Automatic annotation (TrEMBL), chain A:
Annotated GO MF terms: ATP binding
Record has tRNA-binding as a keyword: no
Native source species: Blastococcus deserti
Domain ABC transporter: 23-247
Highest taxon of the lineage: Bacteria
Protein name: ABC transporter ATP-binding protein
Family matches, as PANTHER family: HIGH-AFFINITY BRANCHED-CHAIN AMINO ACID TRANSPORT ATP-BINDING PROTEIN LIVF
Keyword vocabulary terms for this entry: Amino-acid transport, ATP-binding, Nucleotide-binding, Transport
Xref: SMART domains: AAA
InterPro entries: AAA+_ATPase, ABC_transporter-like_ATP-bd, ABC_transporter-like_CS, BCAA_Transport_ATP-bd_LivF, P-loop_NTPase
SUPFAM superfamilies the UniProt entry points to: P-loop containing nucleoside triphosphate hydrolases
Automatic annotation (TrEMBL), chain B:
Pfam family, one: ABC_tran
SMART domains the UniProt entry points to: AAA
DNA damage as UniProt keyword: no
Keyword annotations from UniProtKB, A to Z: ATP-binding, Nucleotide-binding, Transport
Keyword Transport assigned: yes
Cross-referenced CDD domains: ABC_Mj1267_LivG_branched (cd03219)
Domain ABC transporter: 3-251
Protein name: ABC transporter ATP-binding protein
Database matches in PANTHER family: CONSERVED COMPONENT OF ABC TRANSPORTER FOR NATURAL AMINO ACIDS (PTHR45772:SF9), CONSERVED COMPONENT OF ABC TRANSPORTER FOR NATURAL AMINO ACIDS-RELATED (PTHR45772)
UniProtKB/TrEMBL annotation, chain C:
Taxonomy, superkingdom: Bacteria
Keywords tagged on the record: Cell membrane, Membrane, Transmembrane, Transmembrane helix
Record membrane topology: Multi-pass membrane protein
Subcellular location: Cell membrane
InterPro entries per UniProt: ABC_transp_permease, LivM-like
Record-annotated membrane-spanning stretches: 6-26, 38-56, 62-80, 87-103, 134-154, 186-207, 219-246, 258-278
Protein's UniProt name: Branched-chain amino acid ABC transporter permease
UniProtKB/TrEMBL annotation, chain E:
Cell location: Cell membrane
Keyword Ion transport carried by entry: no
UniProt membrane topology term: Multi-pass membrane protein
Protein name as it appears in the record: Branched-chain amino acid ABC transporter permease
Length: 247, 251, 309, 375, 295
């Protein structure tokens, strides 16, 4: 049903920045199941930024994050992280460079216990350890022996977020982390995202549907539409209504 | 009362997911089922729709006990559900996904396929028309009717799953987090659909974490926590409740 | 036409019936059966035993053979009600081995490994199916009928219901579909078709022995179905033709040594591998590519894990 | 009849298809430079080891005849072999192909495939030679099937009689559940009990690489005087080992098919009693075979197929000598019946009785790694 | 009684053989969801390689080299067939058929090499020395087989339960893609799993070659019974597979007391069908209940 959008689209706003880009996408094209999904994404994210990505269902937000991580092959264009070309690097190698993703679905191992799951995120040099996680999600301490597959939808989501946080990445990508979470936890997750960004200088890319929430936490907004960057502005320069109209 | 849940319990191994839950769902209203993650909402849905069996307690629909019935029998009486994780059939087309919701199709009986082919064909036409209507109802354009459901975006899938629910003709609709992950546009669409349904006299039991939506759409809400019903009230009053605020809504 | 060509053409028609009947299960209902050779065998043996051992006429023997194969299909459906995916694959494997074992060891009825010689082809009025051309006509006629019925079925609402059952049983149940009945009825019908193929096979070969109805045959029928495209009824026909013709084609290569047989098998294996790389959706499995190619054996094991205990 | 591509067009050219013509009625031309005969046996699958012996015997005979200038010093024989995996269906299809190519004479083996071919051979009037299968049903398959191997009933009955004469009163049977093993059991059991002997127990196992120890353990508890092995090839060798490994010293017996190197060289087989169809090819033959195939020609199968080709040559000449211009399958079959007795590579004579070779059967014993006759 | 105990001992031997093949398959299947029917070919390869190499090397080295080669074979299959195919989106039946193709190819290549003669490995005189156990007996080769089966099984369980690699294998079995997202290499898991699984099967293959000789088609027979054990044991449970395989071996032999050998396998299969119809999750269901209760 996707009507084709000409490659030119809306040119992304030039983003002069004093710090060198941590992540740089240059005209990235990608396909899923033979269908073009990303059609030339160009995006720079500087170290320490907090970028929110918005867009319709099916706009290609998840695909964008998965492409950065090498889970979706790049057809055309280039992805650089911290100056290195990672366009064709295997996922584990990219992760080791310091990129973490909380996927939209199944960001955990159902068949392992909570504790075993968290161990996969643990880093010896980690700034966020088990204690911090258990403070954030107390239920996980209580249930540390339970198989994640037997937990409720929201409980699983907590595990997924925790694994990514514990890996203490340079770039943290969150794909709708609050889906299915109870309201007070949604707020907590947003707080934590802000906290790791400001306290530890972790660069954050957050995909979200809730515009108001996004504007509260992020410092820059990127809107994706039909596989292209449609808007790319600092939060200060956009309003919810403005974005509403784009969507 | 359309649906009565009385002292229903369910344990998984050592974990009691639902404890003596009792509540009612009045006809032609939207009743919310809210509560923290892991409260037992999905588990309750599973028991009402018959995909799992309650350990104890009774479930009544239109004053008839349905506790022991199969899922097939329950939908036959007019209870239909959606899934937290959508569950469309990705290899069927959008229209097929909806038409399979229609109950009592003569063409689904192998015997009729051979012995009464004309009858089956005629009613098939009628069913397809009805499915198309349901898709129209949720705002899906005709152009997507023959696309595979697997290729739809998440939001569209959710709308199609509601169309499928409508096609069943059921009176009681169980919706499990129908809006999570929907973009703002689709959310609007969903609101409209739900209002129209209620206006038509259907009954909805809605699981939802989006409290703005609950407040806007629900007449009453059941608050569930660690498997127990803590309160039943209007959404507005529930949200003012200090205790619930702490465990759920947040400051 | 030479006897040879008639013979190969007849085999293609018979295997087409068999593979179409299996595609109803595998492609349309998601029942991955490794026991199709057993159903085929039940039809063939019932017919042969009744006509040769008990002197029945071809008509009644045919009817009983179809019923027996349908019944065998019903028996096969029982585990399919409880398990799916890999579990059923292995369950049907077991059924296949049990059936083969019965064909081989119930010597007093099936003649054991010695088999049943002396089967006759039927005559119908002026039509003598002992004539190879007439028999080919019969086989093709039956095949066309089976294909037509199968196409009609998979395109009916009943077929659509099978697809729902195939893709998600929980959803099917919550939509009010009679999941069990759907599975049993299609397995019974598929069994009857396989039995029909078996009867034709007995009449074609005029001799039965258990070797024909072993796992290897089930495997080659599955190959026919997958080759043609699991959800394509016509594809199954093509798959059958290709699998029957391959050894005939290789024969023309005339590799004259004792290694010819194994090399032919090696070639067949390589072909299978190559096909899965080049066209996993099968020859006619075109339009609905991504999903069809994902056809899932691994389903039952979802959430299964390696654990030491 | 429509003839397969490449057939009939090159008659007499020395190409692969001088057989010419298709279907029944016609046949080989007496003045052809080359005629084709068929071979149908397993080249792959579990039975392929036997296929190799059949092939070797057949090939040697073809080479010998061709080296001597062909049949009647003129007609070369060409051998066309196809793999059947010992299954009936591929055999039938391949056979039909051979018939369409005009072949009038086909060597086959394995009971089930040969039983499937027999009615078609009769219908198409093509001679079918079996030198490997011993199932008794092969004795009643009409005028176009000739067995160059005695059937099991002949051997098993002889074995039962000779053992009983030796004073053996009771026997247990272990057999493989293939047609050969099955027939061996049935015939022996019937003959032995008829004579007044007692069968103390019967056990079976799958053909091919089975561990028989448990069955043997069970049979041991029935305490028979002799254990009959209804198995051949490696299975037979395995059973012999396993009998001794479980510490059972019962005397063993088997029919001639047991005499393969793996058994003869095995000290555990010492003293095993067996029927033999004395296969004593000439020194020359033995040397040639050894050189060609790297083993001694101990299997009688080799001889049976060698004879099968020789019979063809003799029958072919017989037909042409009688003034015919073509040699049909029917004519070949008649010729074989007329000639009746042939020289055999066995070193003895071969006589057909109702289509089945009657060969002398002796009782022997394995001693010092060799089959030694007993008086 | 004498007979019964001897049959039990024989059952233990058969069970050990099935267990080696079954545990290897269970590991591979649970971790990868590959219906690796070419496992049967790896089993056969163990026997064939040992048979061929015994002409060139002392028997001990030949066996070691044969096992190593089979392990390499198993790993090659996953690296060059399954993995690339998965990359192209193949799964389920597609992988099954490729595996089937590989089985046919490998089996027949050996047949060409052998001329279909049974490959009987001469493992030395010790192999068939009778070992008396009370009034009963086994041969030394059988005793060795049982010991090896238990040792390898124990080692594998320890490895899975105690090491990081074990956890990684489990993680991979649950969510292979997420393994990459947490920065681990899935190839490593695949290689380890196939190497270990193939090792177990190859050892069983060597034993069969030494005992009765390896033959075309033999691998499939052992494979079918072993897969059945995997299902009875509960897919994913290594211990379940081991125990079920042992039980099948014992049962197969004990059934001889009441029926002929031609029916024992059929009887086991019928029993299997009844069992999975009644309790689809196999023995693991019981395990799972216990695990939940303790959670
Ligand atoms: N496995 C798949 N098969 C077919 N199409 C797919 C698949 N995965 C994604 N797509 C298609 O790719 C497009 C982009 O999907 P993506 O998941 O990136 O969207 P999104 O912006 O994350 O949407 P949402 O907000 O719903 O999560 C959609 O049109 C979707 O239908
Ligand atoms: N099959 C199962 N085995 C063990 N525990 C289970 C199982 N299913 C659910 N649970 C547990 O039961 C509790 C209730 O789960 P349920 O899915 O009903 O929660 P929910 O209210 O729907 O939560 P959410 O809002 O997160 O979806 C949870 O603690 C969960 O861990
Ligand atoms: Mg997304
Ligand atoms: Mg839920």
């Amino acid at each position: 049903m996707s009507t084709s959008v000409p490659d030119s689209g809306v040119a992304p706003a030039a983003r002069p920045s004093s710090t060198p880009a941590l992540l740089r996408l240059d005209g990235v094209h990608a396909e899923v199941a033979g269908q073009p999904v990303l059609r030339g994404i160009t995006l720079d994210v500087a170290e320490g930024e907090f970028v929110a990505v918005l867009g319709h269902n099916g706009a290609g937000k998840s695909t964008l994050l998965r492409t950065v991580l090498g889970l979706v092959p790049v057809r055309r264009g280039q992805v650089r992280f911290s100056g290195d070309d990672i366009t064709r690097s295997p996922t584990p190698q990219i992760v080791r460079k310091g990129v973490s993703l909380v996927p939209q679905q199944r960001g955990y191992f159902e068949n392992l216990s909570v504790a075993d799951n968290l161990a996969f995120g643990a880093r010896t040099d980690g700034r966020i350890g088990l204690d911090e996680i258990y403070e954030l999600f107390p239920i996980l301490r209580e249930r540390r022996g339970q198989l994640v597959g037997t937990m409720s939808g929201g409980q699983r989501q907590m595990v997924a977020i925790s694994i990514a946080l514990m890996s203490s990445p340079r770039l943290l990508m969150l794909d709708e982390p609050s889906v299915g979470l109870q309201p007070n936890l949604v707020a907590r997750v947003m707080e934590v995202a802000t906290q790791v960004n400001t306290e530890f200088g972790i660069t954050v890319i957050l995909v979200e549907q809730n515009i108001e929430k996004v504007l509260q936490v992020a410092r820059r907004v990127v809107v994706i539409n039909q596989g292209l960057v449609q808007l790319d502005e600092p939060v200060a320069e956009v309003t919810a209504d403005h974005i509403w109209q784009l969507l | 009362m359309l649906l009565e849940v009385e002292n229903v319990s369910k344990s998984f191994g050592g974990l009691q997911a639902v404890k003596n839950a009792t509540f009612e769902v009045p006809e032609a209203q939207v009743t919310g089922l809210v509560g923290p993650n892991g409260a037992g909402k999905t588990t309750l849905f599973n028991m009402i729709s018959g995909t799992i069996r309650a350990d104890a307690g009774a479930i009544r629909y239109r004053d008839m006990e349905i506790t022991g019935l199969t899922p097939q029998a329950r939908i036959g009486r007019g209870i239909a559900r959606s899934f937290q994780d959508v569950r469309l059939l990705p290899r069927l087309t959008v229209l097929e996904n909806v038409v399979v919701g229609v109950q009592g199709q003569p063409g689904e009986r192998l015997r009729n396929v051979f012995t009464r082919p004309r009858h089956a064909v005629r009613s098939e036409k009628e069913n397809l028309r009805r499915a198309a209507e349901c898709l129209d109802y949720v705002g899906m354009p005709v152009s997507v009717h023959h696309e595979l459901a697997g290729g739809l975006s998440y939001g569209e899938q959710k709308l199609v799953s509601i169309a499928r629910l409508l096609a069943t003709g059921a009176d009681l609709l169980l919706l499990d987090e129908p809006t999570s992950g929907l973009d703002e546009g689709s959310l609007d669409e969903f609101r409209t659909v739900l209002r129209r349904l209620i206006a038509e006299g259907r009954t909805v039991l809605l699981v939802e974490h989006n409290m703005l939506l609950v407040r806007e759409l629900c007449d009453r809400a059941v608050f569930l926590s660690t498997g127990e019903v803590l309160a039943i009230d209007t959404p507005g009053r529930l949200m003012e409740n200090e205790e619930l605020r702490n465990v759920y809504f947040g400051a | 036409m030479s006897e040879y060509i008639l013979s190969v053409a007849t085999l293609i028609a018979i295997y087409a019936i068999l593979s179409v009947s299996l595609s109803l299960l595998v492609g349309h209902t998601g029942i991955f059966s490794m026991a199709h050779a057993a159903l085929f065998g039940v039809g063939a043996y019932t017919y042969a035993v009744l006509t040769v051992q008990f002197g029945w006429g071809p008509g009644p023997a045919l009817i009983v053979a179809l019923l027996a194969a349908a019944l065998a299909g019903a028996v096969m459906a029982i585990p399919s009600l409880r398990v799916s995916g890999d579990y059923f694959l292995v369950a049907s494997f077991a059924l296949q081995v049990v059936a083969a074992s019965v064909f081989e060891n119930w010597t007093s009825v099936t003649g054991g490994t010695g088999g049943i010689p002396g089967i006759q082809r039927p005559t119908m009025g002026p039509l003598d199916f002992g004539d190879s051309t007439a028999f080919l006509g019969l086989a093709v006629g039956v095949a066309v009928l089976v294909v037509a019925v199968s196409l009609w079925i998979v395109r009916s609402p009943y077929g659509r219901m099978l697809h729902v059952v195939r893709d998600d049983e929980v959803v099917a149940a919550t939509l009010g579909k009679p999941v069990r009945f759907a599975k049993v009825s299609i397995t019974v019908l598929s069994g009857a078709f396989a039995g029909l193929a078996g009867v034709l096979y007995a009449q074609y070969l005029l001799y039965l022995s258990p070797g024909t109805f072993e796992v290897a045959t089930s495997v080659s029928v599955i190959t026919m179905v997958v080759l043609g495209g699991m959800t394509s009824v016509l594809g199954s026909v093509i798959g059958a033709a290709v699998i029957v013709l391959i050894p005939q084609g290789l024969r023309q290569l005339d590799i004259a040594s004792s290694a010819a047989g194994p090399l032919e098998q090696v070639f067949f294996g390589l072909l299978l591998i190559l096909l899965m790389f080049v066209r996993p959706q099968g020859l006619l499995g075109g339009s609905r590519r991504p999903a069809a190619a994902r056809g899932d054996v691994g389903d039952a094991a979802k959430g299964a894990t390696v654990h030491a205990a | 009849a429509v003839v397969m591509t490449g057939c009939g067009t090159s008659s007499g050219s020395g190409g692969g298809s001088a057989a010419g013509g298709g279907g029944t009625g016609e046949g080989y031309a007496c003045d052809a430079d080359e005629v084709t005969i068929g071979g149908l046996w397993a080249q792959s699958g579990p039975q392929a080891a036997y296929g190799e012996w059949f092939a070797n015997g057949t090939e040697m005979a073809v080479e010998h005849i061709n080296a001597d200038g062909g049949i009647g010093g003129r007609t070369q024989i060409r051998l066309q072999v196809e793999d059947t995996r010992a299954l009936p269906e591929p055999a039938v299809v391949a056979f039909q192909g051979m018939v369409s190519d005009g072949i009038q004479y086909v060597l086959s083996s394995f009971s089930s495939q040969t039983l499937a071919l027999a009615p078609i051979a009769a219908n198409e009037e093509v001679v079918l030679i079996n030198g490997g299968a011993q199932s008794d049903a092969l004795g009643e398959q009409g005028p176009f099937l000739f067995n160059t191997i005695p059937l099991l009933r002949n051997e098993s009955v002889a074995l039962a009689e000779k053992l009983y004469e030796d004073g053996v009163q009771s026997a247990a049977i272990i057999y493989t559940s293939d047609d050969g093993g099955e027939a061996a059991r049935e015939n022996f059991e019937e003959a032995f009990t008829e004579l007044g002997g007692e069968i103390t127990g019967v056990e079976s196992g799958e053909f091919g690489g089975t561990d028989f120890r448990s069955q043997l353990t069970k049979l041991r508890s029935t305490d028979p005087e002799v254990l009959l092995l209804g198995a051949f090839g490696q299975d037979s060798a395995n059973i012999i080992n396993q009998v001794r490994e479980i510490g059972w010293d019962v005397p063993l017996a088997n029919t001639s098919w047991v005499a393969i190197p793996a058994v003869l060289e095995n000290p555990a087989a010492e003293g095993l009693r067996l029927t033999t169809i004395p296969f004593e090819p000439s020194e020359e033959f033995q040397q040639e075979y050894q050189q060609k195939y790297g083993e001694a020609p101990t299997s009688a199968f080799i001889g049976n197929y060698y004879d099968g080709v020789k019979i063809f040559a003799e029958a072919f000449e017989h037909v042409c000598d009688s003034g015919a211009e073509t040699v049909s399958g029917a004519a070949l079959a008649d010729a074989i019946r007329e000639i009746e007795t042939f020289d055999s590579v066995y070193g003895s004579e071969l006589t057909f009785e109702e289509g089945t070779a009657s060969r002398p059967i002796d009782l022997a014993v394995i001693r010092g790694g060799a089959v030694t006759p007993v008086e | 009684m004498d007979l019964f105990v001897q049959l039990l001992l024989n059952g233990l031997v058969a069970g050990s053989l099935y267990a080696l093949v079954a545990v290897g398959f269970a590991l591979i299947f649970a971790a990868t969801r590959h219906f690796h029917i070419a496992h049967a070919a790896v089993f056969a390869a163990g026997g064939y390689f040992a048979y061929f190499l015994a002409d060139l090397l002392p028997v001990g080295s030949a066996i070691a080299a044969a096992v190593l080669l089979s392990v390499v074979l198993g790993v090659l299959l996953v690296v060059f067939l399954y993995r690339p195919l998965e990359r192209r989106g193949g799964a389920g039946f597609v992988l099954f058929l490729v595996s089937l193709g590989a089985l046919i190819v490998i089996d027949n290549i050996f047949t060409v090499g052998l001329g279909a003669r049974p490959a009987r490995l001469d493992a030395g005189g010790w192999f068939s020395t009778t070992v008396d156990i009370g009034r009963w007996s086994l041969i030394a080769g059988q005793v060795a087989l049982i010991v090896v089966a238990f040792v390898l099984f124990g080692g594998l369980v320890t490895l899975l339960a105690r090491t990081r690699m074990g956890k990684l294998v489990q993680a991979f079995s649950g969510n292979p893609e997420f393994v990459q997202i947490v920065g681990r290499k899935p190839q490593v898991v695949l290689v380890v799993v196939y190497a270990l699984g193939s090792l177990l099967a190859a050892v069983a293959g060597v034993y069969v070659a030494a005992d009765t000789g390896m033959q075309p088609g033999l691998g499939e027979t052992f494979f079918i019974v072993s897969v059945m054990a995997v299902i009875i044991g509960g897919i994913g449970s290594i211990t379940g597979a081991f125990v079920a395989a042992m039980l099948l071996g014992l049962l197969e032999n004990i059934l001889l007391l009441v029926m002929g050998a031609e029916w024992t396998l059929a009887a086991i299969f019928v029993l299997f069908l009844v069992l999975i119809t009644v309790s689809p999750e196999g023995l693991a269901k019981i395990n799972l209940r216990r695990a939940r209760a303790s959670a």
